[in-house]
Amino acid sequence: MDNELDLDLDNIEADAEKKLAIKNRYQQLSEKVIQGNIEKETLTKAKAEADKKAEELAKERDFFKDFSANVSKYPSASEYQDQILEKVKAGYSTEDAMVSVLNKEGKLVAPPAPEPNRPQAEGGSAPTIIEGEKTLEQMTPAEKLTALGEADRAGTLVDALRGR
């Protein structure tokens, strides 16, 4: 009977050691999971910061490229480059930011409107401008009467009235 009691004590001690080992193993695995989550969060934050920095640098690069192209339209923009850059970083396009800042400062001068490119007749020293056909809304009453007379002489007026 002594042997039976000793066996039970040995089994209890072995079970206690196994339970303690299992508990330690669970604790180690929990710590690894927690540590892994912390590392993952740190990497995610670092990646987000790096992406944000890269996006800001790309915006700044694009700004300087567009700024130099648009400064010819708005010569006084170079005085307000920093303010324009802030607007571009906020989401404006370069030209919109230029117009906004210059308008706010009262320095906005509209670029000159391009002159319409009209065809010119060849030859001669004086420029001869050929104007295209005017619409009825653009014609004066005298021009309308002249055009009506020409159409009647050419016979196109009768054909138009007959529906040909």
Description of the molecule:
The protein has 164 residues and is mainly α. The protein has two domains: 104 residues; 29 residues, no CATH class. Helices cover 68% and strands 0% of the residues. It is built from five helices and no strands. The longest helix has 69 residues. It is elongated. The termini are far apart.
Task: Give structural attributes.
single chain; 164 residues; mainly alpha; 2 domains; 5 helices
Concise overview:
The chain is mainly alpha-helical. The chain has helices spanning 2-70, 81-89, 94-105, 141-154, 156-162.
What is the CA-based Rg, rounded?
43 Å
N-to-C CA distance:
129 Å
SSE string: HHHHH
Q: Tell me the number of strands.
A: 0
Share of residues in helices = 55-70%
Number of domains: 2
Query: Number of DSSP helices?
Result: 5
Mean pLDDT: 80
Mind sketching the topology for me?
Elements: H1 2-70, H2 81-89, H3 94-105, H4 141-154, H5 156-162
